[in-house]
C-alpha cells in the first residue's frame, strides 16, 4: 500500500468561521492524534488530499510533512458536505511502520451468480487487523455460481496475507436470493399503488369497448331522400 506525501500547515484559529476560511484557501482542516502525543490542529492541501483518497481508498496512508518533520498517519474519519461533496474535516491517526491497526475495508464481489439469483449484501465492509503499511483497498469475494438460498459468512472470506478478522466470524456478509418473477413484481407494484391511493385506468382491452356513435344526420333514410328529390 503506497502512502501519499502531503505538506501540512499548522492551524492556530478554530471554529466554523476559521474552517470556512481554510477551505476557501484550498485547504482541508484536520487533526492529528495518537500514540500519546498532543492533538495537532493542521490543514492539508484539498486537491492533493482528494487525489490521495481517490487513489488510495478510504484508509489511505499519508506522510504528513509539518514544519520539516514527517509523520506517518492513517485517515480515520473524513467529513464531507452532503451536497457539494467538499471535504470539510479530516481525522488523522498517527501510526508507525510495522504496527497493526484495525480498519474497516470495503468488500467487492467477483464472478457471476447462478441464473435467476441476486446478490444481497448484509455487510458492505469487514473489520480486520492488519499492518498499517499493508491495508488493502478492498476485499474480494468470489460469488461464481452461487445460487438462491446460499450465503457467505465472514469466516468464509479469504483475507489478505497478514490480516486478522475482527468482524464476528458468524456474521453473514452476502446472501443470495431468488430473483422475483414478473408476476411478483406486478403484484408488488399494484400493492404499492393501492397503499398510495393510486387507481389504474382500465384499457379498452380490459373493459367493454363502447362503439362510436353513428352520424344520424336528419333522421331521413337514403331512400327517402332520393324520393323527395
UniProtKB/TrEMBL annotation:
Keywords: Ribonucleoprotein, Ribosomal protein, RNA-binding, rRNA-binding. Residues 100-175 form the Large ribosomal subunit protein bL25 beta domain. Residues 189-209 have a biased composition (Acidic residues). SUPFAM superfamilies: Ribosomal protein L25-like. Residues 1-14 have a biased composition (Basic and acidic residues). Coiled coil: none annotated. GO terms for cellular component: ribosome. It comes from the Bacteria. The keyword Ribosomal protein applies. Residues 1-21, 189-229 are annotated as: Disordered. Residues 6-92 form the Large ribosomal subunit protein bL25 L25 domain. InterPro entries: Rbsml_bL25/Gln-tRNA_synth_N, Ribosomal_bL25/Gln-tRNA_synth, Ribosomal_bL25_b-dom, Ribosomal_bL25_C, Ribosomal_bL25_long, Ribosomal_L25_dom, Ribosomal_uL5_bac-type. Pfam families: Ribosomal_L25p, Ribosomal_TL5_C. PANTHER family: RIBOSOMAL PROTEIN L25/GLN-TRNA SYNTHETASE, ANTI-CODON-BINDING DOMAIN-CONTAINING PROTEIN, RIBOSOMAL PROTEIN L25_GLN-TRNA SYNTHETASE, ANTI-CODON-BINDING DOMAIN-CONTAINING PROTEIN. Belongs to the bacterial ribosomal protein bL25 family. CTC subfamily. NCBIfam families: bL25_bact_ctc (TIGR00731), PRK05618.2-1 (NF004131). Part of the 50S ribosomal subunit; part of the 5S rRNA/L5/L18/L25 subcomplex. Contacts the 5S rRNA. Binds to the 5S rRNA independently of L5 and L18. This is one of the proteins that binds to the 5S RNA in the ribosome where it forms part of the central protuberance. HAMAP family: Ribosomal_bL25_CTC. This is Large ribosomal subunit protein bL25. It comes from Klenkia sesuvii.
Amino acid at each position: 500500500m503506497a502512502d501519499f506525501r502531503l505538506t501540512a500547515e499548522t492551524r492556530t484559529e478554530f471554529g466554523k468561521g476559521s474552517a470556512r476560511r481554510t477551505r476557501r484557501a484550498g485547504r482541508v482542516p484536520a487533526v492529528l492524534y495518537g500514540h500519546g502525543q498532543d492533538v495537532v490542529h493542521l490543514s492539508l492541501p484539498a486537491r492533493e488530499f482528494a487525489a490521495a483518497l481517490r487513489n488510495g481508498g478510504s484508509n489511505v496512508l499519508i506522510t504528513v510533512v509539518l514544519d520539516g518533520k514527517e509523520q506517518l498517519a492513517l485517515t480515520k474519519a473524513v467529513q464531507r458536505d452532503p451536497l457539494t461533496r467538499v471535504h470539510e474535516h479530516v481525522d488523522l491517526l498517527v501510526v508507525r511502520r510495522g504496527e497493526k491497526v484495525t480498519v474497516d475495508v470495503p468488500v467487492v464481489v467477483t464472478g457471476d451468480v447462478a441464473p435467476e439469483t441476486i446478490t444481497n449484501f448484509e455487510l458492505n465492509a469487514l473489520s480486520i487487523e492488519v499492518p498499517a503499511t499493508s491495508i488493502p483497498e478492498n476485499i474480494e469475494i468470489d460469488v461464481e455460481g452461487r445460487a438462491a438460498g446460499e450465503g457467505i459468512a465472514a469466516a468464509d472470506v479469504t483475507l489478505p496475507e497478514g490480516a486478522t478478522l475482527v468482524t464476528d466470524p458468524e456474521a453473514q456478509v452476502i446472501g443470495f436470493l431468488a430473483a422475483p418473477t414478473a408476476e411478483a413484481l406486478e403484484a408488488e407494484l399494484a400493492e404499492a399503488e393501492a397503499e398510495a391511493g393510486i387507481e389504474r385506468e382500465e384499457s379498452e382491452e380490459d373493459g367493454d369497448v363502447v362503439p362510436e356513435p353513428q352520424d344520424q344526420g336528419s333522421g331521413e333514410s337514403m331512400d327517402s331522400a332520393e324520393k323527395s328529390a
